Amino acid sequence: MSGPLHGLRIFDLTRVLAGPTCTQILGDLGADVIKVEQPGKGDDTRRFAPPYLRDGAGGETGESAYFASSNRNKRSITLDFANSEGRDLAKRLIAKSDVLAENFKTGGLKKYGLGYEQLKDQFPGLVYCSITGFGQTGPYAERPGYDVLIQAMGGIMSTTGEPDGEPQKTAVPIADLMAGMYAAVSINAALRHREVTGQGQFIDIGMLDTQVATMSILGLNYLATGTPPPRLGNAHPNIVPYQSFPTADGNIIIAAANDEQFQRLCAFAGHPELAADEKFKTNAQRVRNRDELVPKLRQIIAEKPSKHWLDGLQANNVSSGPINDLEQVFNDPQVKARGMELEMPHPATGDAPARLIASPIRMSATNPDYRHAPPMLGQHTEEVLKELLDLGPDEIAGLRERGVI
After folding, report:
1. CATH number for the domain harbouring residue 316
2. DSSP 101-166
3. Of 12, 43, 176, 209, catalytic
4. Fewer CB atoms near the end CB (10 Å): N or C, the chain?
5. Segment 160-214, tens digit of pLDDT
6. What domain range includes position 343?
7. 332 is catalytic
8. pLDDT by residue (tens digit) across 42-71?
């Protein structure tokens, strides 16, 4: 089975996480992603380790788990475009591609003759996607961008953490991941535009932009009031109760997202008077009086174990759930039923498959297509040069001897 982007080719000059996240999404949907890496070094994330993928005996393979998280469904070639031969090869491969994706610093590819302005006339149908920390314009355009920096500057750290604690970044690099997702959406839109008009275009994705957009309801809460939202820990700024609560033997989430669920929560807890109290009867009143309501609920919920609350609340159609660690996540029957753990053969792991996280995309006719495990450095160099440029063994050997590949 082929994905919906079968036949599309991406010349992938991205590395680390934002760009590779974008191109992995497109690769999962069927695109042929040619990942271009520096000879002898490769993507920086090949060295973001340990941990590493494990072989059948449980030993470390030297292939980093970080790299594997965002480089499935790609073919890796090594190519040094700092020299003229490498640049020539790059342009010949771009001529065979529909999309060029890159996340060099703003203007970083111009010195190699691979900037958009240098390529657009020669390749008018090319969709060129650039992902940078701050975009192509503005006073910060030349600055490098890293996830934690963007989280800090983009507001999410100021809203994450306990009210009396320090600002916190998210545990996963959300600024990188969201930039990659916005880039993937933009590329698909640009391809549709090209299908209609025949014209390629330049896509400018700035991580700070996408982080500001990701602030969503918190951003609108600020714009509506002029007051920066405070840190609320695990609580919701606009819904109460919608947060974690300690039980007699652990912690759970309760998300009573409407007045009816709150009434059922109070009835099951044996305290219907809370739902009848004018201070708590509607969500707007509960938000205004959260400092009085939440301590009452915490005291009640702490009296009984998690199973009591989870079984009873689910039976009463009140949204609730456990707070799982990742072992529990991947053993969860719903996660298993949806096939969110993926196993793929990998040359470094031998008889044992590489364990990966599957794409969450589900489509009735063109589901994601898993063709390539995260590649080893330069694994497909000869294959790609022969297939796309019809280079022979002697030509490829010469390029290798001269350090071009």
Report:
1. 3.30.1540.10
2. EE-PSTTTTGGGT-SHHHHTTT-TT-EEEEEESS-SSSTTTTS---HHHHHHHTTHHHHSS-TTS-
3. 176
4. N
5. 999 999 999 999 999 999 999 999 999 999 999 999 999 999 999 999 999 999 9
6. 9-215+333-401
7. no
8. 999 999 999 999 998 889 999 999 999 999
